[in-house]
Design a protein that fits this description.
alpha/beta, Sugar ABC transporter substrate-binding protein, Rossmann fold, Peripla_BP_I, Bact_Solute-Bind_Prot2, 375 residues, disordered N terminus, 2 domains, SBP_2_dom
């Protein structure tokens, strides 16, 4: 059996143990039937007629509650949420729990008491949030969550297909290393997407035993990139010679930014960085002179926010939405980016085929609602 099939067996086993493969199987089935991933259409009467449902044809109050809002990925995600709610004529109140899950749960309770029209959750864990989210559902308030481990009937949970994100980045690193080398792994637990990405990393370690982890660190803070830079600088001093470290796997762009800065300032650009997530700032890092950040697997953070809002408005309108939905990720390599001009998130779709083109969570009336709320 070839190496790819062997890895797939490990991958499938790991995914089944942690989260199940129903969502991925659904995506693959749609592709086999020549339906691009993301094209899930509602079949409700409102969607069929194209008339704006009464429940959304008014200014709605939306609560967007985040576990931790740091870095440009988070800011672009929030920008996408705000943009889509405003386009639909609503208003959104953003609550940042500063990585305090009890505070995040209390914000959900606050939103329920304020009788908002809908709740958006960004990250969080079920053991802390489930009781409060169930209160929202019982109160008739629709909830859509992003990158959480919630499993509550009626609550739609979207994610970035973290298994594919991790494998795309790790596969690229493995190919570049020719299956052998010493790496640093930057990771932190306590976040559902990070836990899922770690599942793939652990499977990767078993599949490629000649790629050895020489150091591991990571933490989430108010300035994760700067903390990561300091920690990476210490690692470079511990391993001062060329060949001591071949690559860094950083499954969060805040980690990748910190590692990239440390490597550049130490003049150790023979060490390559492989990340996850993408933003305008990340693109600047990747396109900078002699940047060691050579590849990242990502989705469009602004489109994630817009998609989450669209699903929420469909729920408010009484339309059916999926229980789980994974967004199709993309691999972005530095060598694919033009060298004669800078690329931003606005025009990266011209470089990466299919970037930001999902029409998931759309209903015909959404276009009319947007037109009606243009000012």
């Amino acid at each position: 059996m070839n190496s790819f099939k062997s890895f797939l067996i490990i991958l499938m086993t790991a995914a089944l143990l942690v989260a199940g493969c129903a969502n991925e199987q659904d995506r693959v089935a749609r592709q086999k039937n020549n339906h691009p991933a993301g094209q899930i259409k509602s079949t409700s009467p409102a969607a069929a007629s194209g008339e704006i449902p009464n429940k959304v044809n008014k200014p709605l109050k939306i609560a967007a509650i985040t576990q931790l809002s740091i870095g440009t990925f988070s800011s672009q995600y929030i920008a996408g949420v705000t943009e889509q709610v405003k386009a639909f004529g609503g208003e959104v109140q953003v609550y940042n729990a500063d990585n305090d899950l009890s505070k995040m749960a209390s914000y959900v309770d606050t939103a329920v008491n304020q009788k908002v029209d809908g709740i958006l959750l960004d990250h969080g864990r079920a053991d802390a949030l489930a009781p409060s989210v169930k209160k929202a559902v019982a109160a008739g308030i629709p909830v859509v969550s992003f990158d959480s481990d919630l499993d509550i009937p009626g609550v739609t949970v979207i994610d970035q297909d973290d298994y594919s994100l991790a494998w795309n980045s790790l596969r690229t690193m493995t190919q570049d290393l020719n299956g052998k080398g010493e790496i640093v792994y930057i990771w932190v637990g306590g976040f559902a997407p990070m836990e899922r990405r770690n599942v793939i990393y652990e499977a990767f370690q078993k599949r490629y035993p000649h790629i050895k982890e020489v150091a591991r660190f990571g933490n989430a803070s108010s300035n994760t990139a700067l903390d990561t830079q300091s920690q990476m600088e210490a690692i470079l001093k511990k391993y001062p010679n060329k060949g001591d470290i071949d690559a860094v796997f950083a499954p969060w762009d805040e980690f990748a930014k910190g590692a990239t800065r440390a490597i550049q300032q130490a003049g150790r650009t023979e060490i390559k960085v492989y990340g996850i997530d993408l933003s305008d700032e990340d693109l600047q890092f990747m396109q900078s002179l002699n940047s060691p950040w050579v590849a990242t697997a990502a989705t469009d953070p602004a489109e994630v926010g817009r998609l989450q809002v669209r699903f929420l408005y469909q729920k408010i309108a009484g339309e059916s939405t999926p229980q789980v939905y994974s967004i199709q990720p993309h691999l972005v390599e530095k060598r694919w980016l033009p060298t004669d001009r800078k690329v931003s998130m606005k025009d990266i779709g011209k470089v990466i085929n299919g970037w930001g083109q999902s029409d998931a969570g759309t209903s015909p009336w959404m276009k009319k609602l947007t037109e009606a709320n243009k000012k």
